[in-house]
Design a protein that fits this description.
The complex is a heterodimer.
Chain A (H helix, E strand, L loop, with lengths): L1 H14 L1 H39 L3 E6 L17 H10 L3 E16 L2 E10 L2 H5 L4 E4 L4 H6 L3 E4 L1 H8 L8 E4 L2 E9 L14 E5 H9 L6 E6 L5 H15 L10 E5 H54 L4 H38 L7 H27 L3 H6 L2
Parallel strand pairs in A: 3-8, 5-7
Antiparallel strand pairs in A: 1-9, 1-10, 2-3, 2-6, 2-9, 4-7, 5-8, 6-7
Chain B lengths: L10 E12 L6 E12 L3 E5 L6 H8 L7 E6 L2 E2 L5 H11 E4 L11 H12 L3 H14 L15 H13 L5 E5 L7 H17 L3 E5 L3 H4 L4 E6 L2 E7 L8
Parallel strand pairs in B: 3-8, 3-9, 6-7, 7-8
Antiparallel strand pairs in B: 1-2, 1-4, 4-5, 9-10
Helix pairs in contact in B: 3-4, 3-5, 4-5
Classes of the chains: A alpha+beta, B alpha/beta.
Bound molecules: adenosine-5'-triphosphate and magnesium ion (MG).
Adenosine-5'-triphosphate binds next to strand 2 and helix 1 of chain B.
Amino acid sequence: MLFTTFTLAVRSIRRHLLRSFLTILGIVIGVAAVVTMVTLGQATTAAVQQQIASLGTNILQVRPGQGFGRGGGGPRPPDFEQADVDAVREQIGGVTAVAPQAQSTATAIYNGANWSTTINGTTNAYFQVQPWNLTGGRTFSRAEEEAGKAVCIIGNTVRTNLFRDTDAIGKRMRVNNISCDVIGTLETRGQAGFGGDQDDIVIMPIKTVQRRLTGNRDIRLMLVGIDADYDSAQVQDQLSTLLRERRRIEPGAEDNFNIFDTAQISATLTGTTTLLTSIVTAVAAISLVVGGIGIMNIMLVSVTERTREIGIRLAIGAVAREVLLQFLVEAIVLSMLGGLVGLVIGQIAIALLAPVMQVPWIFVPQINLIAFAISAVIGVVFGFFPARRAAALNPIDALRHE
Amino acid sequence: MAGAGSVAPEPIIRLRGVTKTYGDGPTAFQALKGVDLDIARGDFVAVMGPSGSGKSTTMNILGCLDVPTGGEFLFKDVHVETLDRDQRALLRRKYLGFVFQGFNLLSRTSALENVELPLLYRGDDKKVRRERGMAALEKVGLDKWWDHTPAELSGGQQQRVAIARAIVTAPDVLLADEPTGNLDSERSVEIMKLLTDLNRNSGITVLMVTHEPDMAAFAHTVVHFKDGLVERIDQNHRQGEAV
Ligand SMILES: Nc1ncnc2c1ncn2[C@@H]1O[C@H](COP(=O)(O)OP(=O)(O)OP(=O)(O)O)[C@@H](O)[C@H]1O
Ligand SMILES: [Mg+2]
């Protein structure tokens, strides 16, 4: 009986292709939308988290001035000095390393190719406070740092633009008027959500940059690494007290420096993307429901249209539950078909959209399963209940139905 | 089997005081007011009467497509009025064939598949269905048209497919409600010859509603309805002279 029913169901689907197609359409759209949106939402979250991880989560960024968007009037607050860096490292508990930074822009030239890039003067502590591995070569030696030697470690963008496929390590390139040896190459970090290409960079010892590029001993930024066992808020307080003291700020006066906790922004960003994902998921869920309503409409219309057919089947000896089973199988086959097509279209959409949105391609099995299950349930419920009403009719009433 | 003049006395169908009321309350309408009727096995019965006299109502009850409001309906000594939906469906499947005025074939479905459908519900396998389906189509002279859909067949052909569908299960009783109502007289005579043949040579008891005396002339017994009651029953001793 089940095989018979299956035969009848498939036959009926094939005989009414347009109706079947319209029925499927709602589910296809709903499932594809849910899968695509939720997956891309999660991919975005993953991308943001990846960027946050590349910042290093337990870092305080310390800058002169009063934070983002302020400054403006008044004299510019003084930059930090090497002594501040040493004091922070030595006097505050929980600080693992402090990387000073002096930045400049310069043109790097090698073998006729030139490339304008950011020069970052720092120390080896830079590689300690944040995760950034070398793909080749080495970091600075102590002697190179102290003497301010002309050595550099280059980001991937600089490497590909100047050296193409050749090995950069050991080559000598020109940075403005400095002739410097490439001693290391950095692994790719990719596009930062905030602030362009992170790989477009040349890292040199801070003394080299200060002496030969910026021409002063100022430090514009300190990256302070914090031991994971310490409370970053407490470290922040101590750091603030120390810097106020060193910069001779009167009690009651405002700080003329700011401390930026990356752990905080990572929490904020994660929160935002999670919220975004939930909103997108809700929108997608609505489209699934709308798809379901579409199916219900088609099913209702087609059952009205098919009531006579149900009457004929009953009249020639079908038992009501056989007719019902046929409709149920039809609904299941259609909604599963719709679900599968929706999943495939969803995957295609993800594959196409992920690169455009600059998020990684990911496959989330749960959402595929859930969307598929919901589509099956919707199809069955909306396909089955209208049919049940028709099959409950007296055969003669079903036959008379216009 | 039973033919003209040798009708077996044993009734296959008995109606006793059958009533049918449509609707309820003040709009209720009593279409049958206590019908008593015996149909002998092997008989060819024509049901006649003015419009609204309850012919179709009676046929639907006899075809187990509808249930009486009161009275008794015995089919092969089974009290049909006590059966539930599914039991009535099984009765239809096993013993009854129904032909409608409006053909009632499944659209977009070939003649053969339409004819095979009752066998499918009966659980016959594909080979048996094919054989019996084709045999039934052959009997109505449409075996060459087996793969045509209703839309590709004339009205007379469609009705013949419907008859093939009704007889494919070799039923005891064939019920036809105005089978020629939508056909011209030439096509009608063809259908009547077919029914006569089925009655004589396949031993099927035939009950047919008709408005036309010409068609009723093919029957052996003519039942006249009036106002929801059987008015009189005539035996037609010249049955088949038209054939
Ligand atoms: N489903 C129904 N609901 C209400 N009244 C009905 C229904 N079916 C039939 N009737 C009424 O019952 C009466 C008998 O109807 P029936 O169809 O049996 O007549 P009939 O003898 O077949 O007439 P006709 O020759 O026109 O086909 C009619 O008055 C009709 O209006
Ligand atoms: Mg009628």
